[in-house]
Design a protein that fits this description.
Blueprint: E1 10-12, E2 18-20, H1 25-34, H2 36-55, H3 67-82, H4 98-106, H5 116-133, H6 142-156, H7 165-193, H8 202-207, H9 209-218, E3 223-229, E4 235-241, E5 247-251, H10 259-276, H11 282-313, H12 321-350, H13 360-363, E6 381-383, E7 389-391, H14 392-398, H15 411-414
Antiparallel strand pairs: 1-2, 3-4, 4-5, 6-7
Helix pairs in contact: 1-3, 2-3, 2-10, 2-12, 5-6, 6-7, 7-10, 9-11, 10-11, 11-12
């Protein structure tokens, strides 16, 4: 950074370009890292919202482009906050998390990991062959997208550096659970029935359509069940009577049942718990049950809002415009609302609250002289020869001790690790 006279500071980037402003990327990164929990929470909410829009696209195809800003924002925030300041592999062993122990068992102490790329290529090839020779609709659908992403994750897994072991395990577990929920049951049903275009509508038939009829009856909306429609692969349907006296049929297909939102939640929560905890307790299982209940209620609320919109807005059997708008947008809005509340509760009950700087107790805490944040055994720290203590990453970025100006040449040997 350099300043000329009274001119505004300018910044020389590695590419040779110049950026003028009050804050460069390192300062932005430091600012976001000081509020890491809030930033990670915002990134997870944005990631879940983007995946829900991508895997459960609305009727109007142009609207699913809204997933791109959510996914881009999540990727940017996670990259800024989680990217290490020094690209050096950790000296200690990998974290002893539930995910690490799980992968150690299923891969025979990681001896099978080198074969993951072969398995990924085989999975992608099988999906491509299925679409080319067996599927009545050879275009890539949601289940194909999930399968291909899982295959790509298997291919990349052995090549991810150890310093990203938790992030690598999180992505692997996320797509593994997603495949177990969305793809494996569908494959088993199709093999059992010998119909390669068979859908999975058991969830809609048993756990959504009857309950939706009950809720509508409580709201005073007359309704009745209709036989499964063969044109929708046997999906259940109901008819409701609008205010004008017209009967409107609603078919609850697999994609409309909310199973995709449920799958994203289950995959993200399972991956998060396994990669962040060494053991589970009653709080984890309580939140898991509450999350499943909230996911089910959100799906039921979504269908109720769609039918209620049609009940009040339809003026003729062909007037379903507002109902289609509700069908396209209400689902992800409700999903974003309840998943945000869930993650807030999760962070509140699963993680201890940090002590606030304003309290007398916090004043006695050892703090990094550079950034002012508390020193913790969970964050690598160092002590200079002059006795002042710093975060290891902060001192490395500074290059020298701000107090005695001792250069940082070999931080691992010249400074003492805090315990």
């Amino acid at each position: 950074m350099a300043a000329i006279g009274g001119c505004e500071p300018f910044y020389i980037l590695p590419t040779g370009l110049y950026f003028s402003g009050a804050m460069d990327f390192s300062e932005l990164q430091a600012l976001l890292r000081r509020h890491k929990n809030v930033v990670v929470f915002a990134a997870l909410v944005s990631l879940v919202a983007g995946l829900d829009l991508l895997l459960n696209p609305p009727v109007e195809g142009a609207i699913d482009i809204l997933s791109l800003p959510f996914l881009a924002a999540a990727a940017f925030l996670l990259a800024v906050v989680l990217w290490p300041t020094e690209l050096k592999a950790p000296s200690g062993p990998p974290a002893d998390t539930l995910a690490h122990r799980f992968f150690s068992k299923v891969t025979l102490s990681f001896r099978l990991v080198p074969y993951f790329p072969v398995a990924g290529i085989v999975i992608i090839a099988i999906d491509a062959a299925y679409n080319a020779f067996l599927s009545p609709s050879p275009v890539l659908q949601i289940h194909d997208t999930v399968t291909i992403l899982f295959g790509v994750t298997l291919i990349a897994y052995p090549f991810v550096p150890q310093r990203f072991d938790r992030e690598r395990d999180f992505v692997m577990l996320f797509f593994l659970v997603l495949v177990l929920i969305l793809v494996v049951p569908l494959v088993l049903v199709r093999l059992y029935k010998g119909d390669f275009d068979q859908g999975v509508n058991a969830y809609s038939s048993a756990a959504l359509a009857p309950e939706l009829q009950g809720v509508l009856s409580l709201l005073g909306i007359s309704n009745k069940s209709v036989p499964p429609d063969p044109s929708f692969l046997g999906a259940p349907g109901i008819q409701f009577l609008t205010q004008r006296g017209d009967w409107i049929t609603v078919v609850i297909t697999t994609s409309c049942s909310g199973i995709y939102s449920f799958s994203i939640f289950a995959s993200a929560f399972t991956a998060f718990i396994l990669t962040e905890f060494r053991k589970t307790d009653w709080r984890v299982w309580t939140l898991l049950v509450l999350g499943f209940v909230a996911s089910y209620i959100a799906n039921l609320l979504r269908m109720t809002v769609i039918v209620a919109t049609g009940y009040f807005s339809i003026t003729s059997p062909d007037d379903v415009g507002l109902m289609l708008v509700a069908h396209s947008n209400v689902g992800w809005l409700i999903f974003l609302g309840w998943i945000s509340l869930f993650w807030v509760l999760m962070y509140r009950f699963l993680f201890p609250r940090k002590e606030r700087p304003a309290t007398a107790k916090s004043k006695k805490m050892s703090r990094c002289t550079i950034c002012g944040e508390p020193l913790s055994p969970t964050i690598a720290g160092t002590m200079c020869e002059c006795g002042r203590m710093y975060h290891a990453s902060c001192l490395q970025d500074e290059g020298q001790c701000p107090a005695c100006h001792t250069p940082v040449s070999r931080p691992d040997s010249e400074s003492k690790a805090l315990t």
